[in-house]
Amino acid sequence: MKPTTQQSRSRQCLNHLKSRPRLKISLLIAAIIPLSLNVSQGYLHPQSVDDNHTLTVVAVQNPTTVFQNDGFTHGFGYDLARSYAKSMDLKLNLVTVNDNNTALKWVKKGKAQFALTTAPINQIEQAQLIAVEGSCGAQSTLQKYGLNSNISWVFKSAEDPLAVTATGHLCQSKQTGEMQRLASFYDQNYVNQQDLNTVTHNLQQRLPIYKTSFKKSAQQLNLDWQFLAAIGYQESYLKPESVSPTGVRGVMMLTQNTAKAMGVQDRTNPAQSIQGGAKYFNLMLQEYQDIPYPDRNWYALVAYNMGPGAVNQIRTRLQKQGKDPDQWINLYQYLENNQRANARHQQAIQYVKRIRIYLEHIKTTEQLAQI
């Protein structure tokens, strides 16, 4: 296929960049790649992508790149990489390693197409690799939400077409607001350290009491018991005597109708409440089984909080607006845009963000992970 004028210009730019100082490459690419670049057309399809149409990305786990633990994989950097892979109709295979040196070696040896990293630029230069600025100049946005503004996508060379298409995708994500919304959802300042210390103290006191019930219910439904515990803590702080203004009760705060539908006879009985809550959350996961993870988790949580009817109404509105109703970033944007007019939307945002934070806190805090 004969290259278009835009394709030829992109390639000429890369040839020009080869003679430039390595530190400047990512910034120059960002300045010359048009935001309308359609990576899905395949004219810059990387030769390094394997025959299975899989994009392998290597990362060091941290709050900015990816959280990967017990089958959970999500995060600011991960979601941007996932969006990029989807734009080229590729399956994303993200592998985490222990340190930046190892991640960079993976790229150098061709074991990964690029590294998602917060490594210092001098470390990337010493490895003779090419860094594309992960925020496309939106460092202040990342800093606002407590994310590392030094995030980079690191490639083997400027000749790799991925170095071009990645920059185009990242800058397009910035322009459309996707980057800001992802940074907002993965906000590292949403719960401050003092409050997290209180969470740790409360869970150390209360979680051992209900651990058996959480594990039993999770095992029956093939769920993660710590995820259920995070939901329970957000609902009631794991207090069986909790009562909301609307009359929901107990650890998982079930309404009378939900409790009855889930076979719960006594909402104030913690074991029954946990079992009922687990059943209902599993039902919400099934409701959105066509939505891939991690988005399915967030949809199910919003539905647990607002009811699936409310979520499906939003999805219908998104579809009418020409937006994909099965992408979390679109549902999240709708909730954000309407939170001032609808308190339920504001509550749903708080609900999902806090449960994500509690889940990560439980799994990565030694005192809690050992409970």
Short description:
It is built from 17 helices and seven strands. By secondary structure, the protein is an alpha/beta fold.
Work out the helicity level.
40-55%
Mean pLDDT equals: 89
Query: What is the first-to-last residue Cα distance?
Result: 60 Å
CATH architectural type of the largest domain: 3-Layer(aba) Sandwich
Biggest beta sheet attributes: 5 strands, mixed
Strand content: 5-15%
In total, the number of domains comes to 2
Low-pLDDT runs of 5+ residues are 1-47
Number of DSSP-assigned strands: 7
Radius of gyration: 22 Å
Protein name: ABC transporter substrate-binding protein
Family: Belongs to the transglycosylase Slt family.
InterPro entries: Lysozyme-like_dom_sf (IPR023346), Transglyc_AS (IPR000189), Transglycosylase_SLT_dom_1 (IPR008258)
GO molecular function: peptidoglycan lytic transglycosylase activity
Describe this structure in words.
By secondary structure, the protein is α/β, with parallel strands linked by helices. The protein has two domains: 5-185, D-Maltodextrin-Binding Protein, domain 2; 193-369, Orthogonal Bundle (Lysozyme). The chain is 55% helix and 9% strand. The chain has helices at residues 5-17, 25-32, 76-87, 100-108, 121-126, 139-144, 161-176, 178-185, 193-221, 225-236, 256-261, 270-287, 295-306, 308-320, 328-337, 343-364, 366-369, and strands at 54-60, 67-69, 72-74, 91-97, 114-117, 130-133, 152-155. It has a five-stranded mixed beta sheet, with helices on both faces. Strands 2-3 form a two-stranded antiparallel ribbon. The longest helix is centred in the middle third of the chain and has 29 residues, at 193-221. Mean pLDDT is 89; it is low at 1-47.
